[in-house]
Structures are given as structure tokens and as C-alpha cells.
Amino acid sequence: MALLVVGVIYILAGLFFRDPWKTDDVVGLATMMTALNDGGHAWLLPQIGVLAHAQDGPLITWVGALCIWAFAPFFELFATPLDAAIIASRLPNFLWFGLMTASVWYGTYLLGRRPEPQPMALPFGGEPTVQDYGRMIADAALLLIVATVGIVWRMHETSEVPALIAFQALAFYSVARMLDHPASGSITLGFALAAAFLTRGWIGAVPIMLAATFVFMPRSALWAQKKWLMLTAVISISLILLWWIPASQVGEYWIRNWVLWNSSSFGWPNFQEVLSTLRDLPWFLWPTWPFAILAIWRWRAWLASPHMLIPIMFALWPLLTMLFLVDAFEPEYSLMAVPAAVLAAFALPTLRRGVVNSLDWFAVMCFSLSTATVWLGWIALQTGWPRQIAHNIARQTRGYDVTISWPAVLAAVLGTLAWIALVRWRLHTKPAGLWRGTVLSAGGLIVTWLLLVTLWLPALDYVRSYRTVSGQLATALQTHRQPGECVRALGLGVGQRASFLVFNDIDFTYESSCGLVLQQTSPDSVADGTVAYADSAQVLWVGKRGADRNEIFRLLRVRTP
Length: 561
What we know:
By secondary structure, the chain is mostly helical. Strand 5 and strand 6 form a beta hairpin. Helix 8 packs across helix 9. The termini are far apart. The mean pLDDT is about 95.
């Protein structure tokens, strides 16, 4: 029950009552709304209005669009149609989070109850049973994946990332299941691999497919079950072809660009990119990666055992794949989160009590400081004190009208009190469960996240949302657009295009004969005259997000041939 409460708080905090933010968050929503509004091939081939979004895959578009179609009418009873669609589009996140946590827990449980990781029997008995030991390891793995810093925001996006993490976790569970039930495990694995491909194409599917293949090594416990991989391959390929064949027939241009995007994303390792990845990964995977490395060292004599081999392969192949990606970033980093959490869970039984207590004190200091920092920043935002902190915040939120949401403040206060109670409970009790070394890290991260998405949500929305500037652009178009006149874009980013489509249904054509042009540029380019149409167009409107100092939009009327 406690784990269920932790999971519910984790996924609910920050999921609703905010706008979609650029880039991946709003792009995912734009493809869902395009599929619903335009229908036809937009269901097979994700689109952002008329723009062919030839990346990733169609699965999150399907699931999200169906949720909007099914549940938005209900949410419209107490919200605007746009806000109802936004709320409904985030319902799949419950599915992705539930699939991830359930797969991590049950997969780790299946590995933890095997004979290889069992502790030595005590002379007079009293050691946990095989099932109890497996449950303790699984509980620790679940808390560790919840405590992973890098995925906390990503799990709340309407993007491909939470779905990809969920399907990797499902693949991990399926492989663990094949140790005892190869038939059902191979079927589930086939669905997981196909779903990963339909979520993020080859970039997301390749590391999971390679991991699921290389766990069937000679002399491993799974080697005897390798024949079942044929069933997995048949299921996976069949499901992929069910999309690929009709998609190729109706969208040759889309498929050609999709293949180009996937193939051009791979290349030979670049020294700077590798350094960037190695620099970012420790922050993204905190606090699990040190324990994952420790587990590999402590269990070095058992690396061929399933409880080590399976998570190691699911961590190794995403890491190797990242080295051959042109621009690896958080969607790719996220594939390291599940195996790192599982490996870290198996490190916990090898830790001495003093080490566990030190980790608890570190978590208490770290997350107490983070909660105090969030509160201090909010006080500075509201009152102007401390002056230097308030000045720095004002620079990043220029034009923001400070408001207080008392229900949000109440939720933040309750979260802070819960953190204090958790710390007090942990310091005054000596729980025997293996999860005792992870509960403070998971609880501290959840409380910090809760404070950010309650106290700071209005300011974050102001800084990261395009709702206001999109409304201003819609008003400008109503004023200056002639009947039947088209609008084209110049230098407009994908996230900005998706935002204008979502908030005000503004789409942009590719017709070069259009006299109206929406231009995205920078204030410096306008000031020094290097911007396109600097002297040859009539400027009808200029707008920007209030806090953005690097980006402006200009609506121009240009001469047409």
C-alpha cells in the first residue's frame, strides 16, 4: 500500500494544471490533435498540421488521440475544450508509469527469488524466505527508479519518452519471465520490442533488441530457452509490418524522411559528444549509478547469473548505442534508468549498515537543502527578499505577475511536513527491509518535485508556455489576414509550430507565394539588420514570450511574385 501511495503522488504531481511545454511535450500533443482533427493518414503518419513529423513512431499518437476522443467530452464539463484535450492527452502517462513500475517490480522479483542472489543461511535460521527476499529486492528497485532524478520530468510529458521507458521495462520483465515461463515471456517480449519500435523507431528499439538478444549467451541460464526467440521475432516483425506496409503505401514522402532521420542519427563516435554524454549521465542517473557500478563489482563472480546478466545487458547496449548517436540526449539517457535501478537494488544487500546510514544522512541533507531552496526562492519571488535571489529570479521571469494559489501552497506545506515526518520516522526506527536505504532518496525527490510543481508552477508556465504569444498571434492574424490568404513560416522551430497549432489552431503552409510570413528570429538579428526581410517587408506584428530574451516573432507582409 505504501508503494502504491508513493507511485500515485509521483505521477499526479505536475501532470495536470499546466500548459504543454516545448519541445517534446507540446509536439506529442500536436500530433495527437492533428490525428483527431485531420484524420486519414495523420493516424498512420504523425503530423504537426501540414508538417510531416517523420520521427519516432505513431504509437503515442494513437494512444493519446484515442484518450482525447474518449475522455475530452467529459472534461469539457468543467474545462475549456482546449484544456480538456490537454488533460485527456496526459491520461496515457498513468499507463506508461504503471507499466514501468509493475514491470520493474515483477522482473526484479523474479530475479531476486532465484537461488544465485540468495543470502547465506544463518546458523540458527531467521533469514528471509526466498519470496520475501525477492519482494525486498523488488521494493528497493521500485523506490530507486522513482528516485532517479533524470526521468522525473520526462515521466510527466506527452512525449515518446515515458512510453519508451515503459516498453524497455516490459522487455526486461519478459526476459526474466522466460527463465521459468518461456512461452508467455517470449510473447510479451515480442509485443514489447514492437511497441518500442513504434514508439521511437530504430533509435529506441535497437538497444532494447540487442539487449534482449545478447542475454541468451552460451552458458547462461537463458541459453536453453533461445529457441523461443523465434516466436518473439515473428510477433515483433508482424506487428511492425502491420504499420509499415500501409504507411509505406500512403506516405512515401513521410517514410523516406523517417528512414533518413533514423539513419542520419547514427554515426561514428565523436569525442565531444562522448564527453558530453559521460558528463550528463551521472546527473541524469543519480542516485542509482554508483550503486549499479558497486553491484557489478560486488557480484563480479556471478556476472553470468540472470540477476546480473540481464540488467547489465539492458544497461550496456543503450550505453554503447549512445556512443554511435550523432546527438544523444535525455530520450536516449532514459534507457539507462531501469537497468541502473535494478542493478542498484542488488547492491543494497552487500552494503554494511554504516554505509546505509551514511546514505540516509546524505539524502536527508541533500533533499532538506533542496526543499529549503525551493521555499526560499518562492519567498523571494513573492516578497522580494532576499534581494539578490529575488533579482536573479526576476531576470528569468521578466513581466510575470506574481500570484499565490493557496491550494498549491497548502499542498506544498503538507508535502514538507510529510518529508519531516519521513525523516523523523527513519531516524527513530531501524527497519529491516532492504529498501531502508532508498526510501529517503525516493521520498526526498518526490517532495522536491511536488514543491516545484505547486509553488512554482505558475511561474514555470509563464516561462515555458507559448499560450500567451500564440493568442497574440491569433489576434494579429484576425486583424491583418485577408479572406483566403495563407500564412507561411520562416525559421520557425518544431516546438513553436506545435505550440501555435495546439493553442490556437494556427497552421502554416509551404506555399512560397504566400504574402503573410511568420518569422522567428532573435532581437540581435533585428537590431543589426541581418534578419531576412529587414527592409523589404511590412512588419504587422512583433511578439515574444515575456521572459524570453533570445527569441521574437514577426508577422510580415512581403511582396509576392
